[in-house]
Amino acid sequence: MHDPVIGIDLGTTNSAVATVEDGRPRLIPSRAGGRLTPSVLGVTKAGERVVGQQAQALAEEHPDSVVWATKRFLGRRYTPELVQQAKALVPYPLVAGPSGDVRVKLAGRVLPVTQVSAMILGELALDAQAHFGRTVTKCVITVPANFDDNQRQATREAATIAGLDVVRLVNEPTAAALAYGLSRGFEGSALVFDLGGGTFDVSILDVKSGVFEVRATGGDPRLGGEDFDQRIVQWLLAQVDDELRHVVSQDAQSLRRLKVAAEAAKRELTEHEEATVTVSGLGDHASGGRRTELETVLTRSFFETLSEPLSRRCLEVCQGVMREAKMDPRSVDVVLLVGGMTRVPLVRRLVADFFGRAPSTDVHPDEAVALGAAVQADELLRQSGQALLLDVASQSLGVGVLGGRVKRLIAKNTGVPVVARDIFFPGTSGQAEARIPVYQGESEFQDENHKLGEVVLKHLHVAARGDVPLEVVFELSGEAILSVKATDLTTGNMETVRLEARAGLPHGEAEKLGAEQANYAKSQGVVDAKRAEELFRKLLERGEKLARMLQKSAQENPSPEAEAAVGTVQRLLDGGRTALDGKDAAKCAAIARQLTQLLSGKQEPRA
Ligand code: AMP
Predict the structure, then answer these.
(1) How far is the CA of 51 from the centre of ligand 1 (A)?
(2) 26 CA from centroid of ligand 1 (Å)
(3) Mutate to test the pocket of ligand 1, among 9, 13, 337 (most ligand atoms within 8 A of CB)
(4) CATH class name, domain 5-223+312-390
(5) Beta carbon of 266 within 6 Å of any ligand 1 atom
(6) Strand ranges (DSSP E) for 300-368?
(7) For residue range 91-150, what is the model confidence (pLDDT) as tens digits?
(8) What gap in Å lies between CA 99 and CA 102, rounded to an integer?
(9) pTM to 2 decimals?
(10) How far is the CA of 264 from the centre of ligand 1 (A)?
(11) What topology does CATH give the domain 225-307?
(12) What is the DSSP letter of 48?
């Protein structure tokens, strides 16, 4: 038996884990019983960590004991601009880590956002472990197509802390297209419009003979459902009595209530033309001061007016991607909608108008990405050659040169993997060390791009300026992770360069957090195993009832099919009891899955 490999959609709002079973990708249910796991982390009064639905429930009463949407800060550097952006979106404070990484304050502790992601990933890994009855370590994780190098590295770092080995990172839209395309044998151009809780991605892929080639990608990493919620929150705030408005806008609990109400109203407007918004207990929670309440009605059309600037941003991204792909929007063969926000009628209308066709409803907007990740994981495991992914660099990469400019080595939308090289000369004569800054972004000016770090080459051949050629080689892997090499061509001195400005965790911390997570997973695994055993015993009892029923009907209406059905259930029950006696958790889990299918009527008990 192969070790299972899972596909993980580590989302801003929700996460999901999937696997391929009997040739079909399926979501693995969470141990809490849901299909999706809210990407929310909380710490209870007793200091226990809770993730997902439990954390969401904790937020109702103790909004300051949870953090959510931390994916927005993953792999970013702590800067005043980031803090400003965060203030508009989330009430919890960000804190700078020692290497400039971003951390959150939660229940008196300071946690790196990488650790928050690791805890969510860890929870999904435990769900998979409960599903398979064995430890799962290998996974494919999806990331937004426009995640830069640091954000990809941080995702990998989070996975390592969670004890997961990332076989490959896959872009979310590519995963969605895989989930759609493979099962249907689709060929043509597929546009994936992915508007989630925090990010917006658009990709256009060519699908031909099992090859999924990304032609162009674009997006806005700071545009998602939360921004639509914020528009409603601002509108609600404007309706609070003048003398309390300031207090309400500074009070975390009130803001949380407004945000929850805004999100609920937005969802309601997906189904109805009007939503009544009622929010009570707005005001001063910190010192137990005055409170007020708000009741108002939001219509769909006014929500659409409020969202106008956001819709415009969505369309601009689509236009940019079409331009880069050199395509007319009307020549796209299928438009796939991904992300919870694509349920909003306004968004559907925008898409239909822009592309001149109704989007496909065949992929599930919340599940397609995880399912596609599972398909890719399965493919990598079996190496069947059924689906090959060819991605592109989502942003241009270059080095800083004189005059504050950037010399581009790899242009946006170049197919990956790719290697690019160029020759540079240190700025001043007689330099013994060269520092070449590396930038990601589309501007020709350094300060309008994102600095990834610096190539530092020491012990240079000391000579006059212009006499020390340095060769810089950029290697962008198939999953768009950059490695850089620099060579002093005079001495042949070569260094593989670690980009220094990476806001990763300081040396040693990831290992420490990994050990902490492993301990947690171990103790949680014991609890889960006990629970799984109890549930399995109950399932066997139900299976026995089914067997008796089938036996009775086989006696009343004998037929070879009826006999075979009895035989199938009996074999499963016998196998189940043996596995239980032998404490074979993986076998128990496999039989539990089959029995559950039979009992739920999803599968006929045929031999
Ligand atoms: P995702 O990150 O893909 O899980 O998307 C989550 C976003 O989709 C959140 O902003 C949700 O408020 C939004 N969303 C989910 N379902 C709906 C719905 N039925 N109507 C409107 N927005 C929704």
Answers:
(1) 19
(2) 21
(3) 13
(4) alpha beta
(5) yes
(6) 334-338
(7) 899 999 998 899 999 988 999 999 999 999 999 999 999 999 999 999 999 998 878 888
(8) 9
(9) 0.82
(10) 10
(11) Actin; Chain A, domain 4 (3.90.640)
(12) -
